[in-house]
């Protein structure tokens, strides 16, 4: 008997979770992972949350100031449990899936940072995420005052603001001031994770299925780039759904026509070309 498609229910749950007053970052990341791993059921989601709770229970009680919190998390997650990353992790979709990162203890900087954020938050730490260009780290303390930055991808290595500026300069190719961005909000973190997944899939033409669901989840977030609608339309056409793709292109063209008339006309031409492929 064919398996019932539970995609609509999953998408509704993701959209509802994203619109909570205080979005649950771990839950949202696990709902993203569900799109990639059909074996991740409710028990699997619960098990991942329980593992985060278990790790938080191993953090020393109120270790002290920002530096002591960073050292405590590095000692637990970086040293004892060996959570960290390597260049090879950028080539694996599992590196963007929270339940797999908890299992493998390997992942992209942002997913390792999610583990740190969720464990530290549960333990009572003053913790926040820091979205640097090309990298993601965590901060402890007051982001606008006394704080310490740590790099979970490097096992929890402590960074000065100057170290962070060097990371930014390396990513951008130009010198950067020693200033750290404001704390990243949960939905900003989720959108960045989905952007990483889209980029992973875009480099693999055979994985348009992954790129499509990453775009569709991004569109369910309360705030997202409008151009994602056009990306979805192009993916639909690429996957052979010419009618739906053309319709979405035409709707996107109407949205941008007032500000970018030339771009809108180019999109309409692509829509007409998509419809012509039906003949």
Automatic annotation (TrEMBL):
InterPro entries: SirB1_N. Pfam families: TPR_9, Transglut_core2. Residues 68-195 form the Protein SirB1 N-terminal domain. Belongs to the UPF0162 family. This is Transglutaminase-like domain-containing protein. It comes from Streptomyces milbemycinicus.
């Amino acid at each position: 008997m064919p398996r019932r498609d539970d995609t609509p229910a999953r998408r509704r749950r993701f959209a509802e979770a994203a619109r909570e007053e205080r979005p649950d970052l771990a839950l949202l990341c696990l709902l993203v992972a569900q799109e990639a791993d059909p074996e991740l059921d409710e028990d699997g989601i619960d098990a991942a949350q329980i593992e985060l709770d278990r790790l938080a229970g191993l953090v020393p009680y109120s270790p002290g100031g920002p530096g002591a919190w960073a050292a405590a998390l590095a000692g637990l997650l970086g040293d004892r449990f060996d959570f960290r990353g390597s260049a090879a992790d950028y080539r694996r979709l599992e590196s963007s899936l929270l339940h797999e990162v908890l299992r493998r203890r390997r992942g992209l900087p942002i997913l390792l940072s999610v583990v740190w954020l969720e464990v530290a938050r549960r333990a009572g730490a003053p913790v926040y995420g820091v979205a640097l260009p090309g990298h993601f780290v965590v901060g402890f303390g007051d982001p606008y005052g006394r704080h310490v930055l740590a790099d979970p991808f490097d096992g929890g290595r402590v960074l000065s603001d100057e170290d962070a500026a060097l990371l930014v300069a390396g990513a951008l190719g130009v010198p950067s001031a020693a200033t750290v961005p404001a704390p990243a909000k949960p939905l900003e973190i989720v959108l960045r994770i989905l952007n990483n997944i889209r980029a992973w899939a875009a480099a693999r033409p055979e994985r348009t299925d992954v790129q499509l669901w990453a775009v569709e989840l991004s569109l369910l977030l309360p705030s997202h780039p409008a151009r994602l609608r056009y990306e979805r339309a192009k993916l639909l056409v690429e996957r052979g759904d010419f009618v739906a793709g053309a319709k979405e292109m035409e709707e996107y063209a109407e949205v941008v026509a007032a500000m970018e008339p030339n771009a809108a006309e180019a999109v309409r031409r692509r829509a007409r070309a998509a419809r012509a492929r039906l003949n």
